[in-house]
Structures are given as C-alpha cells and as structure tokens.
Queue: 4 jobs
Job 1
Amino acid sequence: MFAAEIRIASEDAESIISALSPEAGRELPRTTADVRTEDGVGVINLTASDASAMRAALNSYLECIRITEEIGRITR
C-alpha cells in the first residue's frame, strides 16, 4: 500500500479543495482519496495499491491544483 499527503497552503486553498471534492468521489482504479481543509490549509490524502496507481493519482490531483490556481490568478 502506498500513501501520500498533499498540503495546500495558499490563499486559494479553499477554492481548490471545493473544486477537487467531486474528483475525490470519483472512482480511480486502485486508489482512494480524502479531500478536506484544516485551519485554512487544503489537505489531500491519497492511498493506492501500487506505485503506478499512486503516480497516476498524484499527477491527476497536482494538475487539477495547477489549473485551479491558474483560474484563480486569471479571475483576480
């Protein structure tokens, strides 16, 4: 079993977590995700059954974070 935690400490953390919450409910093969905020910091916990599944989940979530931050910058 593989586990990873992504912590997002930015002014966009709550928006990012809000945008990613539906993604966490989506089925990813061999992967589970928990998305929440803790004291204004976004937290994403990922678990995967193997390294390939973890890599895919990390790539997916990090790309979603990047896109959401970019949208935030554009709309300010």
Job 2
Amino acid sequence: MRLLLINPSNSVKGLGNVSATAFPPLNLPYIAALTPSHYQIDVIDENVEPFEFRDADIVGLTAYTASVHRAYEIAQLYREKGIPTVIGGIHASMLPDEASQYCDVVAVGEAESIWPEIIRDFENKRLKKIYRGEMIDLKNLPIPRRDILKNAYYKWGSIQTSRGCPNNCSFCSVTAFNGRKFRRRPLHSVMEELETIPQKYIMITDDNLAGYHQEDREWAKSFFRMIIEKKIKKLFFIQASIQFGEDTELLRLASKAGVKIALVGMESVNPKTLKSYKKNINLKHMKANNCHTLISNIRKAGILFLGTFVIGGDEDDISSFHTTLDFIQSSHIDILQFTKLTPLPGTALWNSLKKQNRLLDLKYPEAWKDYRFTKILYKPLKMSITDIDEGNFYMKKIYFSFRETLKRTFFTLMTTKSILTTIIAFKFNQSYKKSFVTSDRYPLFDKPDFKKRFEKTSPFAKLKTRRYHIVTGL
C-alpha cells in the first residue's frame, strides 16, 4: 500500500520557505508513526519542493486556512483518478462540511485518535465522510517518524511537549482545536524523542512551554535540568507568555539548557484592545506597567525576545501605531513580528464579525488564500483599511531601518553578551525584513512623508521629543 502525505503551501511564500527559519511539520510524522508497517509512505511538503503528481493508493492532506484552497486543488487531482483523499488540520476541523465537498474524508480534531480507524476502513472499503477525533491523553503519543521528511532542508527541528490552552483569545483557534485543558507529555517521553532529532536548532512548538500554573513551570524546570544533566547540545526556540519573565530560576535554567529565542504574544500595548482580544494575562501586566521589566528579565537571561503584535483591532485608532512603536523601541525587543488581525474560522472573532456582517470577501474557498495575516479582511471600526496598511508600513519601515537595526543589534549584544545569539536575532529580523520589502504592496506606501501623519497624531510624540531633549541636554 502507498500512502502519500501532503503539506500544501499557501500562494505567498513566507518564513517557512526560507531555510534559515523553516522547521518541519509534526502532524504528518505523527500520522506516519500510526500507519501500519506494510505501507510505503511518501511526503510532499510544498514549503520544501514543488508539487508533482505521485501515484498513491490513499492521500492524506493537512492545511491551515491560508493553504486550504491549495489543498483542495491537489485533492481534486487525486479524486479525478479515483484515489481517496483524507484531509485534516485546524481549518477542516472548523469547517468540515466545506472540506467534505473537496475531499473524500474529513478528519475532525486530533487525528491520532482516529487515524487507525480511517486506515482500517480504507482497507475494508467502507470509508465514512467524517471522522471525529478526541483530545487524546498525550501519554499515548508515539514518537513521530521524522525519517519520512527531507531533513537536510530543515535547519530547525521541531518537538511538542503539550497541547491545549486555558485562555480563549478572540482571534486564536488553539482552544477550539486543542481544548482549554492544558495537557502535558511525560518528561521521559519528551527526552527520548529529543535525543532522536538530528538538527542542532530545535523549535518547541507548544503555544506556551512554561504553561499556566506553578506545576507547569516545575515541569519546564525539570525539562531544562535534564537537558543540562544529559549535556544535550541544542539551541531552542520556544513560545511562552509574558509571565515567562517572572521566574528568574526558570529563565536561568532555560538559558543554560540552550534556549535562545522566546516568542511572546504581546498582541497590543492598548489595554482596551487587549481586553477586546481577551488577552487577560497581558492586560494584567500592561495595567501594572511591568511589561518592560519582564521583557528585560528575559533578555538579561541571554534569551532573545521575539515580540508578536496583532494590529487592526476595533479599539485601535491611528495613534496606536506610534504608541506601539515607542513601546517596541523603549523595551529593546530583539525580534519583531507584526500580523494583521485575521478572523480564522472557529474563533470568537470569526463568529462575531460574521454575525455583524463585517467580513469582506465571502467567495470561499478562493478567499481563504488571503487569510495569511497580512491583509485586513473585515470592516474596521475606528480606521480605514488604508490607515492600517499605512500604519503597518510605518512601524516596519522604521524598525527595519539601518539606524534602528544598528541600535538594536548593539543592545542585543550588550544585553545577551553573546555573539551567536546576536547573529540569530539579526538573521531572523533579516528574514522578516525580506518578506516585508519584497511584498507587492511595499511600493504603494514607500513615500518620503510616510512618518508624518503617525507621529503627528500620536499623544506620545511630544513626550518622546521632550524626553530626547532631557537626555541629550538639547
């Protein structure tokens, strides 16, 4: 039997297509690990190689919202030849009725709980249209089969230690897909898998490695201690909340174990926006005015702070762009990622905008190609779409400028005291910058006076000028 697993790419190339920042998908290796040994398994990852038709007995596809239209296109090629297609992933799980129009089988939810059943039904020629998975006990996760991937391409390896999130941010689909219960894998299983990964650089794909309670932090500390004790020489990219900066012992152990980058979802510096996003952890710290301290704690531990911001919320106005940029500069965020608020299916944001008739392009599935976090897809309340596009350009143009890059590189080096860490930050920012300056929309906003309206409308502009005069004595 021949099983072909496909990870389609969306139409616009991003960081996943750049070798320096690409990491392999884990879902397909997990499926491969649960497939009977009499199957020959082949993989096409369009982030790595262009799609070419390969014969198979059954085809499995995974897709995010931005790549699902491409997944449907590929599925049609196989359906026309009578080869059954199975699709899973977040998008298909949120909209199974849509997915079932383009694929023979839809796997809803965590596919590990239903894949063996799908394979049995395929072999017995009794495939059902929809299979609904359960949120599994992670003790039973197999070791994913990385041997099916083109590992030489991926500079970063990947591993997962937990699933689920007790928060319910309005724009995030993690809770809808993985549930609000935070589930952790056994430490011994994680360590066993970690030692099989060939890459030196490792992306830990958990949404929050440090978790949400003290027991979760203790697990993370034990994890880092074991890496140190076993003398595992890897460099790690993790994701965590701003609370990661509260625990100095956790930071010390993480740094010693090889954590080099912590991605933290800052989302906004506007308390009203954070409240509308239901980002309660950040809202608490923003109101307490200690975000700068927490960011500083992470950076002083020798860990790069990758701050992500979601722009375009209903509580934002044109002044928010300069305010956000001022916060980014004053806190010396090492690596920056901006995304535009995107209403992903299954999220509270999607449901709300749909109910209010504020979604702009309803020609699905073609419209899903635009759901890649770079385009406003709804009617904003306090700004125009052009305002948001120009504000996005304004912040990126300044942050990635030569002057700011020079300053930022200096601060990164002085704080982390590591040339390697500084080089990593520089390369990540260059990848983000390349994506920005090569965009087809870049020339539309690259005008000599692009700063004027944003600095003029900011309530912080005069304060910043005054602070400059005090510091310089001018």
Job 3
Amino acid sequence: MNIIYKKFLPESFEACYEVHMPHNGMRLDQFLQEFFPSFSREQIKEKIKSGDIQIIGRPGRMKPNTKVYEKERILAFTHKTIHEDEWWNGEKLELESNPPIVYEDEGLYVLSKPPFMSTHPTGKHLFFCATVYLESLAGRGTHSVHRLDRETSGVLLVAKNPAAANKYTVYFEKERVRKCYFFIGVKNENYNGAKKFTAKERLDTGGEGLMRVLIGHHPEDSGIGKRAETAFDILHEEGKYVLGLAFPKTGRQHQIRVHAMAHGLPLLGDKIYYGSYKMFQSFKDRYATAEDYAFMQLPRHALHATAINIPWETEVLPKQRKTFFGPPPEDIGKWIRENMSLDYDRFLETTKETIENYFSKSDK
C-alpha cells in the first residue's frame, strides 16, 4: 500500500503517500493521478503548481514533471472549496454543519445525519462527511459501521474504535439490525391502494459507466438480481401524496426507493425513480428546467432513516435491544406542514408509537 496516512478535517484533507519501486522515476503528476482518480490531469497540475503537493525533504515548489523516487514520501493537501456546495434552482442550499448526536458512549456515536452529508469521504466529497465531522469533535479517528445515501437523512451509527466497529458491523451482516425509514411518496397508476404491503422484487446492480446509478427490479421468482424485501406501512394519504414507513429486511442499494417505485409510490424529489435517468443527469449537470424543479419540489429524495433498533446485550439481559429515533429534518417537515392538512407534532408522536409497536412485535 502506498498510503501512509490520511487526515480529514472539516476544512482540509491531508494525505501522505510513499513511492514504491513500480513508481520509481515516474512524473509527479502521473504518480498523483493514480491516487486522485476524481481529479483531471489539469487539476492535478494546478495542485502541484499551487504548492498543495510537497515531497518531504525537497525544499520549494514542485513541478508536474518532477520525478519521484522509491522511498520518498509525498504530502498532498486538499482544501475545502465550492466543489461540495449544493444548489437548488439557482440558490445555494444552507447545509446543517453541526448535526445533533443522538447518543454517545465509549465505543459508539449515533448521529442524526443531515441531507447531503456523506457517510465517509469518497470522490469529491471529502469534508461534509459524518466521519469527518465526528473526528473533528473527538480529535481521533472513527469507523463507519453502515452507510446512508448522501441525500438520505437520518440515524447513523459510527464506531469510535475497531472493536466497536467489528461488534456493530457483525449485527448488520447477520441481519440482526431493524431499520425504519420515513418517506413521502407520490401515487401513480401502479399503486393499488394498499395501506400495508411487502415488496419482494429482486434488485440487480446498476448498469455500466454512468448508468451504474440506475438499479433494476425483477419479480421475486425471476432468479435475476438479489433477494430484497421491504415492508411498507402507509400512515397518511392526501391527494396524490402518501406519508409512510418502510421497514427494509435486507440492505440493497436504493432498495426502498426502487421498491416504492415498483409499487406505484415513487419518492418525492427522487430524480431517478420519480423522474428518469435523463432528468437525473439534467440536475447533475445543472441544466434542469423550471418545470423539472417544479416537478421534483424538493432538492433531494424524501427519505429519512427515522429509527434503528439494534441488539443491546448484557450478561444480565442477553436479548435486550435498543432503539434510536431521529425525527425528520426541517426540509421534510416544512413540506408536510405546507402541503398536508394534519397536526404535524401529533403525527410524529403517533408515528413513533407505530414504529415502537412494529419493533416490539418483531421481538416475538
């Protein structure tokens, strides 16, 4: 491994790489391209020229054609700029930079992750990340146990040490974790009006290249794709919209979004499954029309991980479990208050009761 260490802070990212024999004598820009695949060759050259790349032991600024040699160590700095900003209909969104910690002990953080925050650094998203935020508070490294999509808000477990990470990861791998998501769906002709139903469509992986974001679904008995199961409970229906809960039994990519769409309830704000791949690209490349924005209504898909129930075992109570709750964030709450004729606070109370009842029945 060429990587010696990585250090993530809310405003900067520092990484140290060691040159190994296969890279001996390589140009500096070519060497860095292997470790920053999301950066273009020109962006790499600009980083070198700006002084963000240093070779330990060599004074002064480097050049793109500077040769690197075995055993040398290279420091690369990336500073937070506008590349992680989120925009909606020409306006920059205000992101929640200090999300609340729902629970904390010696081995675990339970974070209420806001929308657009990544679980951990990946691609161009290096700073607005759950692990980076928590590391900046703790002053030490953290370990992601599971992940939520960047647009999905909600309850997220992050371990403080390897032992805790292994403990909670095993719970997820063995399907001992129960999860509940709150969503806003939009009815179409495929919705049969059922208040409770279970989706069992099999899900395949995305396509090639840019199409990898699009997950397909197939009949339960088709044998194509992987087994997936989600239980749905529709709590409120008004006009063409529904407010509901989804209880995924498996953890496939885009599972709830695809299962909801397959049963005639695509999620409000979902640019792929409520819109289309073409519409998704128009938002991604910022050429969406006014009609597209009006159709989506929300800057992100209306999906919130509202509760998670995990084993909380002790020697005295080996079968004990614990539930962590996180109410929907302001963007979802604001939409509901403006578009639904219900008592929102009371609705949240009864929703929590429904979730608690579901989890308690699962114990029997």
Job 4
Amino acid sequence: MTKRRVGLLFGGCSGEHEVSIASARAIAQAFSTSPNDTVYTLLPFYIQKNGQWCDGAIAQQVLTSGQLLLDAQSAAPLARWHLPPTVADVDVWFPILHGPNGEDGTVQGLLQLMQVPFVGSGILGSAIGMDKLAMKMVFAQAGLPQVNYRAVSRAQVQSPSGIDAQLCDALEAALAYPCFVKPANLGSSVGISKVRTRGQLEAALDSAASYDRRLIVEAGVVAREIECAVLGNDSPQASVVGEITYQSDFYDYETKYTEGKADWIIPADLPASIAAQIQAMAVQAFTAIDAAGLARVDFFYVEATGAVFINEINTMPGFTATSMYPQLWAASGMTFPALVDRLVQLAFERHT
C-alpha cells in the first residue's frame, strides 16, 4: 500500500511560533506510532518568523530539537513565502500554525489554492474563529448566549486628544468593573487586560490598540471556565467537557503556557444536564462558523445561577500531548495517534 504523504506545516509569523513547534513535535510523534507509521510518510515544512519556508533537513532539525531557527541561521537567501518544490509531493496538509497568518484563514487560502486537502477549517471558519467581534456576531445570530460586550475602534482610542472620556463613560455604564479589554483579531490571550479602574481601562485600551485596529471590551463574570472539544465536519461530535483552574487573576498568556500555572479537571465535575448543554452548544458554535475538522470551544458556567455563556471558539487549538484538546479526546476514548489519523481522514472527506 502506498503511504500518504502528510505535509506538517509549523512555525509561522506570529507570537505563537514556539507553541506551534511544540504542537508539531507531538503530532510528528503520533505519526511515527503504529499503525500510523505504516500508513503515512511525514514531510515537515517549517516557516521561519520572517516568512521563509524551509523543508528537508532544516525543517527536520527544528522538529527534532524543538528549537526555533533564527532568521540569520537560514542558509538560503530570503525568499519570503517562496514555496519549496517539495510542496508538490504533499498529499494532505496538517497546518499546525497558531495565531495570525496561521489560523486566521490566510494560510488556509494558500492551501486551498494548492487544491490539496488540509486539516482544519477553511477560510471562512478560520477567519471568524480568529476575529472575536465577527465570532460574537455569528454566535449572537445563532442564538448562543454571551456575556455583555462592546466594540471599540483604534481610531476612538488613538485620537489626537487622547482617549475620549465619553467612550470610557459609556463602557463603564454598559459593562461595569471588572471588565476585559482584548484585541479583536489576535490569539492566545496576547494583549488582553483585566481592568478595575478608569486608569486601568485607559491603559488597557491603549495597549490593545497597539495590537489591532478593532478591540472588544467584555463584562467580567464570576464563573467556572469550561472547555469542550469538537471533531468532525458536517456531523461533528463533542468530547467530554473539562475545566480549567488557576490561581492567577485570569487565564492570561503566561498562565496558559507556563507549566504548573493552571490545572485541568477532565471530566469536569458538572451536573449531567449542564455538561450536555455545553456539548450541544459547542457543536452549535462549530456549525455556526462553518468550522471543520477540529475546534475547542470555551464557556463560562455561572454556578450560582446555572447560566452558561459561550466565550470563544479556537479552530486550531494547542496540540501537544498534554494540551486540552487531545486530553479531552483521550478522556473520551480516542488516543492521540488515533486523533491525528482521524483528522487526516476528515481532511480528505472535506476535500471530496
């Protein structure tokens, strides 16, 4: 039987470059495990932070060592987004790129132009899943409950006279404190601030505006943070649900990616009806944005009232062996190697 050649695409031009490498290493290990090693041949493709694609020995070196390749270390002259000839050998792509230029529809558009199957959502689902404002509008249209929020533009924040006092007045009146200020189109908790005072609000708006021209300000809520994994295409399935606990003020970038800063409870200790509601809402969110393959959907559960609010969907979640997405499926009875195999099968299914 001829092996299928999987193009493992990792690295990328985002602040989550190192996270992508870690995810790629775990996926590569899963493909080298029986029976995957008899079905697939892995072809690694590493995108440097400057946008240069590397294949062959260089990509394998990064995959083996886990260390990023500095732009100056590349032996080849810079040819940003120039594709190596070996891309023509790929039967199916596994793009494990996180953040901007990786999970926002950009690289998905490139792969779609190649007319080769790829794991994960297409352009539309990826773009909506990355942009928090667009995501919230789609969720609202789908009837999914959310915490109160307001949209803010960079122009409102970076005016010649400084941040408009009336803007802050309106945000305080609508959302109260504490609230969260976020760039709309940036992944993995980068640029997010929790604020409790007018001064913190102004500083947070200014900080978020340095990352994106569209911002979102959300009301804070005292709630448990629950996550659910979804797998499939047109008939997606939900995993068991898990809970994240941590001691920091909120689930920021440092907490998310520093070992020991957060703990997971899988399955979450929830009433069966609440768990079922979250699973149903996860599938509904997945379908609403036209996601494909995989996604992790995050929720707030207000135990005092029994209310469940959808927070966001992540169409290319972290994929190390200890990441929440594969752990949720492990608890649902699917091993890591079986999961990557299933994702490749779904990629072929979506392409036909």
